[in-house]
Amino acid sequence: MKNLERDVVVIGAGPSGLTAAYELSKAGKTVAVLEARDRVGGRTWTEQMDGATIEIGGQWISPDQTGLYSLIEELGIETFERYKQGKSVYRTEAGEAIVYEGDDFPVAESTVAEMNKLIELMNQLAAEMNPDKPWEHPRAAELDTISFHHFLRNNSDDETACNNIGLFIAGGMLTKPAHAFSALQAVLMASSAGSFDNLVDEDFILDRRMKTSMQGVSIEVAKRLPEETLFLNNPVLKLEWSDEGVVAHGADVTVKAKKVVLAVPPNLYSRISYFPPLPRWQQVTHQHQSMGLVIKVHAVYETPFWREEGLSGTCFGPNHLVQEIYDNTFDGEETGTLVGFISDVEADKVWSLESDEERKEVVLKAMAEFLGEKTLDPKVFYLSDFGSEEWTRGAYATSYDLGGLHRFGPTQNDNVGPIYFSSSDLAGEGFQHVDGAVRMGRRSAARILAELDGTSYDESYDGVATLTEKANA
Ligand code: FDA
């Protein structure tokens, strides 16, 4: 057992924990990062499969994600644009695949009008919200105690419009059925991305990717940490704490520190035994944040055959097993990669199938209903399975149960003595995204520095500038 003494110990080497560690070490503090897995990156993870680059976890960046943009600028990481040229495919409830162009789904004019009405309503609600404080929205309690499913139907009689709008937040983002989270949670998702318009515009929200891959961002940050800082294969299962500091117990490293950044997803807080136990409020709060569940399907072909047919690879099917598909070919690769998404109750169905062969057959058949027979024969087929990853337990991220956001949210970012919580799932802007993880990492570092150095913390700091830039501003 290695016994270390540091100013700060960080638990979790995902983008949030690593950003916090990087900022703290640049500010001259000694840091140790204890990571459960044998790799960095957490919910961002890249593998090579038969020559193709597969982003198993997070991958896209949108123009408003300026926290992440400032970090990659600092690291010298470039981005490339997702392939967007060509027409898209929409699968109707009756199972017809319609090729279309433009922003509107090819549905009845009255449905388009209803969808636009709902989009406008969500835009208004999002504009009234400070994403850092969604519980201060004038209608917070009302919106948090109605499910998004029922909220949509209270505002429109058009079932197709409700399903289509529901897709953008339910299957598309929170990866829970729309009856399982509140309208306030849905408005937060929109507000965190700038507007609901941004969220429903796939060319905005899924704009670009990292040339290093998204896990590459964490790898580059890790390279810049001082020696003897990062310790992989060190799950922390026991944390002693008092006003004087903490002792974090990893598998073969124990760290005594003045402060701890707990940079694990909120659903895993209770995986750790705390001595003494956390206060009542946190013990209760942490039971109300749970992971969604989505399967990311990767299918690699000899060529991106859909492009030759004038298609972008973008497909939507709100009532289908595979609800979204995109061209996911990595920069410079000649093969063509499609990524599909199977969310919540549809994911349950896929995992309940008997064998990998059956899953492959069912999923490819569903994808072929959008893009034709050639879809059935990929050279690589892989399903991202974060639900069975012990150190994540779902995907993409955690959200509150009905009523939880306005009840527990206001204190979710309060530190408990020396313990600071840092996760993309606690962010306002960039909520549930790598951008939010970076912003939270910087904000946690800033709060700890203020405590350690006896200076004041600027509550308005949004985590976009690095702490050095902020100090020099
Ligand atoms: P994250 O979960 O990444 O890291 C936490 C770390 O803590 C992990 O490394 C874990 O192993 C470790 N840990 C847990 N318990 C521990 C313990 N007890 N002791 C030590 N270590 C412990 N975002 C985006 O911006 N664009 C996108 O396209 C997508 N797409 C996407 C797809 C999929 C399939 C997933 C799963 C997620 C995304 N995301 C995304 C979300 C994005 O990946 C996510 O928001 C960030 O990775 C969160 O970063 P954090 O550092 O907060 O947690």
From TrEMBL:
Cofactors (names): FAD
A GO MF term: oxidoreductase activity
Binding site for FAD: S16, E35, A36, V236
Gene3D superfamilies assigned: FAD/NAD(P)-binding domain
Sites where the protein binds substrate: F341
Alphabetically ordered keywords of this record: Oxidoreductase
Family according to the record: Belongs to the flavin monoamine oxidase family.
Record-given protein name: Putative putrescine oxidase
Organism: Glutamicibacter uratoxydans
